[in-house]
Design a protein that fits this description.
There is one protein chain. The protein is mainly β. It folds into two domains: 89 residues, Elongation Factor Tu (Ef-tu), domain 3; 73 residues, Roll (SH3 type barrels), CATH 2.30.30. Helix content is 6%, strand content 46%. The chain is built from two helices and twelve strands. The strands form two sheets. Strands 1-2-5-4-3-6 form a six-stranded antiparallel β-barrel.
Length: 175
């Protein structure tokens, strides 16, 4: 399994018991979707290694208490601390309407209601305070804020995101 075929679920943050249980801090708004997993992948030395789940249960709001097969002591659990956890993309819940996963819209065409065709989404920058669409327009990078007020529609069939940007925003990149 390769990382590009998976999504980030969270990170193992703490040992829970002397029997090898750990707490996984989930990176999701819907932790209940991941309460009954059979297996997951841990990033160990840049390789995704499958771990099979003996039992799991939600612990507080965004923590999942896990007991893995073949992890039966505190020492075993210690080795898993700070490991990132991934699941296959096929396990992501399907989104509809104007909601989407960032990886899902890469390669979609951006159309502005006023400007017209802008370019192709080459990435989503979520490392700053404002999440941004990164758009390639014939080698010129255009950044558009990604927020609900700007996104008019998402057409998965035609791979198009229609936006309504403030007047002049796109022109700033083309002058």
């Amino acid at each position: 399994m390769k990382k590009e075929d998976c999504f980030y679920l969270g990170k193992i943050v703490k040992k829970y018991s002397f029997k090898g249980e750990v707490l996984l801090k989930l990176d999701t708004d819907q932790p209940e979707l991941y309460e009954h997993l059979d297996a997951l992948f841990l990033d160990i030395n840049n390789s995704l290694i499958p771990y099979f789940v003996d039992k799991s249960q939600l612990h507080k709001s965004n923590l999942l208490r896990l007991k893995f097969e073949d992890v039966s002591s505190e020492i075993d659990a210690e080795q898993l601390l700070k490991k990132e956890v991934y699941l296959p993309l096929a396990l992501l819940p399907k989104l509809e309407g104007n909601t989407f996963y960032y990886h899902e819209i890469i390669g979609f065409h951006i159309v502005d209601e006023n400007f017209g065709s802008v370019g192709l989404i080459s990435g989503v920058n979520d490392s700053s305070a404002q999440v941004l669409f990164e758009i390639d327009r014939n080698g010129i990078e255009i950044l558009i804020p990604l927020n609900d007020d700007i996104i008019s529609s998402v057409d998965r069939t035609n791979k198009t995101v229609t936006v309504n940007t403030p007047p002049g925003l796109i022109d700033l990149y083309l002058e």
